[in-house]
Specification:
Blueprint: E1 6-10, H1 15-26, E2 33-37, H2 47-52, E3 60-62, E4 68-69, H3 72-81, H4 93-122, H5 130-150, H6 152-157, H7 161-176, H8 182-185, H9 187-196, H10 200-204
Parallel strand pairs: 1-2
Antiparallel strand pairs: 1-3, 3-4
Helix pairs in contact: 1-3, 1-7, 4-5, 4-7
């Protein structure tokens, strides 16, 4: 077993950090990374994390030479560039831009879900902005509808960076927003997720209940 040469700052409940952990598992590089669990919030960042990432956000990857990479998109592309098996993101052409766009859709849905989470977890109930929360929920709903309508064949084609992002979105909705009951409205997407959530990489990175 190799000695870990990198350190990943993460939180077990972070869907963006989960993307990186799933990728590491898929490309067989988990043993090259030391996982350092921390629990920052938007209002109480961890001092150690801020030194690595001025934004104070997870994940952050410290390389062997001390250089730090963030956010999850940058980290995933870096890790994808350093393994010898088939890349999980096309290097050039229309397929690359399509997969990057699909990955950005997944990230945007996660952003909306996290903003809803922060509003409920960090702000007093009397200060919740109902219209703003509704707007974030609608972004998620539009994203789910688009994935169901336009993306099933692409998702089923390979478990690449875009598919990993979508899988982490669905897992996070189950984890933090089960009241959405998204499976009832998007059965084909649910059927796809029922298969991929059984992958070892998804099981190993499942957030705590």
């Amino acid at each position: 077993m190799s000695v870990p040469s990198m350190t990943l700052y993460f939180n077990a409940g972070s869907p963006f950090a989960r993307k990186v952990r799933v990728l590491l598992d898929e490309i067989g590089q988990l043993d090259q990374v030391t996982l350092k669990a921390i629990q920052p919030t938007p209002v109480t960042p961890e001092a150690e994390l801020v030194q690595a990432n001025p934004l104070g956000k997870l994940p952050a990857l410290v390389l062997a030479n001390g250089e730090v990479l963030y956010d999850s998109r940058v980290i995933c592309e870096y890790l994808d560039s350093r393994h010898s098996t088939a890349p999980l993101l096309p290097a050039v052409g229309a397929a690359r831009w399509r997969r990057l766009t699909l990955g950005s859709l997944a990230d945007g849905m996660l952003d909306a879900a996290l903003l809803i989470r922060y509003e409920h977890a960090l702000r007093p109930e009397e200060k919740h902005w109902a219209l703003w929360l509704e707007g974030q929920s609608e972004k998620i709903e539009r994203g789910l509808a688009y994935l169901e309508r336009e993306c099933l064949a692409e998702l089923e084609a390979s478990f690449d960076l875009a598919s990993i992002g979508v899988a982490c979105v669905l897992g996070y909705l189950d984890f933090r927003q089960p009241q959405l009951s998204w499976r009832q409205r998007y059965p084909q997407l649910a059927a796809w997720y029922a298969v991929v959530e059984q992958r070892p990489s998804m099981e190993h990175s499942r957030p705590p209940i």
